[in-house]
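This section describes the prediction task in plain terms. A model, or a person checking by hand, is given the sequence of a single protein chain and must write out its three-dimensional structure as a string of tokens. No templates, partner chains or ligands are provided. The sample shown here is typical of the held-out split.
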Amino acid sequence: MPESGIVPSRLAKTGTATLRRQEALRKAEALQNAILTSANFSIIATDENGLIQLFNLGAERMLGYTADEVVNRMSPSDMHDPQEVVARAQALSLELATPIAAGFEALAFKASRGIEDNYELTEIRKDGSRFSAVISITALRDEANSVIGYLLISADNSARKLIESGLNEALAVAEKADRAKSDFLSGMSHELRTPLNAILGFAQLMESGSPRPTPVQQRSLDQILKAGWYLLELINEILDLALIESGKVMLSHEPVLLSEVIHECRAMIEPQAHKRGISITFPHLAVPHFVSADRTRLKQVLINLLFNAIKYNLPDGEVAVECTLRPLESIRISVRDTGAGLAPAQLAQLFQPFNRLGKEAGVEEGTGIGLVVAKRLVELMGGAIGADSVVGVGTVFWIELKLAAAPQNVISETGLAALPKPPARDDLPLSTLLYVEDNPANLELVEQLIARRADLRLLSAADGNLGIEFARAYLPEVILMDINLPGMSGIEAMTILRADPVTAHIPVIALSANAVPRDIEKSLEAGFFNYLTKPIKVDKFMEALDVALKYSQSRTKPTASDNRT
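The expected answer:
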């Protein structure tokens, strides 16, 4: 009797297991059926030689063949662009240094080595039409891990390609329009300078001529000159903004001693402040702080903020410049005024071109472009700019820049101490090197280097215009030119020297902190004899000077009076 009770229990368990297996089989069959009948994906299975064994409904829909037409008759590579299949085989051959045959072997090579491969190919339908597809290929293996075939799953990529193409085309059109706008502004700015030069020039001649202008004439001349100088300021700011937004402005990123820049700004700003009865205070930086910036452009930004603080201040107001260390190894330079202040709505509109935030109703002239230029420049130097204001109390404009390590005189395997100074020789001809540079630290470094050359004497100029005058007057054997100079860039100065028959023979070496290969290439194409990057390497620097001197001495040197009328 007990045994008769066990049998039904065992039968029940066996029946449950059977039902589970049947349910699993039904699910597997349903999954297989869903795969085979999927209309969204092409699913193709092949044998180990690449001959198609399975061709689902999605493959039929995408490629236009029926399963009967391709199974045991075709390979997937027969439906792919043959040139792309050949190119894939060649790429694999180069990558693996092994000849790979074009065809299905090229498609399945990585999958056969256990690497799931994904790639894009152009597939060809039965009617000859083509479409882009993304294909995933996986090797199928038996229990002994031998490859018995391949599974290819692909999806039509045409829609994504079309969207990408449209986006790329729209982006290209937008970039072209932006370049055209910037080029137009740049070109117009230059064109406007010619008539403006005549207006300002002749107005100044009339003002200083004999007989002296009558009071009425003087008032008219004052208006002409005031409007002319204001128009020149507007043109300069538009040109600056156009250059920045077109990506044509070049900035150097080097350690700049903040106290030096502030001192130079102070010398320019204090007379303007005193003329308006504005008291101005500057910080005393007991500890030298270096910031990573372009010296000339940093000075331009600070001058703009200081002029605005004076211009829009109240009578007998105050301006204070402050420096505060900030987190993340940065420093904030603030310019605080006691003007009317800005409302929150006005603060939100700052740094927009031609937006003077209600100042257009006042007596002060301005374009509203200066702050836009300042923002772009600060951001290009890796910093940030902002403002805080309280109506009736005043406004604080600030910029934050990353701190930088103090520059070493020379960063090179060969130090200054290891560089011997040649003995003085009476028979050694003395050559002149002109260095056009506005950064005192860089100038001091080159002075130390040239002091070790008994065959050279050094002249220096702080900007491009002065450099051109010195070059014409002294006819140096070699010119060393910084690229980022105040006013005129080093490239512009070099171009003028090249166009002048008197100075065209002088080799001009560019010296810049900008080490981007594309910019170096452009500078050499523009006409520089050589291009050296900062920090200076002594051996490379001296070698470049020697090559330039040898070239210069082999050329006929004209006199300053040659080709002059």
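For orientation: Residues 343 and 391 are 6 Å apart (CA to CA).
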